[in-house]
Amino acid sequence: MNTCYNLNKELPEIIVDSNTKDHDRTKIDDLITERNAIYVFAKGYDDYHKYHQLSKKGIYFVTKARDNAVYGVEQELTLTYYLETT
Fold it and tell me: In this structure, is residue 83 part of a structural domain?
């Protein structure tokens, strides 16, 4: 089961049911419905080509990288503010 959960409404918006033979990443296009959102993917969605396509379309996401992922820093950004939690 793959779910698109709306944090503002605190409700699931899309639920895509699949059998165990389907790989999670085959359902990614069914879950992405908006550009003004940040999608969170589990490692089962691991598809770097698809991530690149999403980035080019302005679709943002967060995912856990594979343990053996090879990556480099493209840009370092300065933190301009922080929320004090005391």
Answer: no
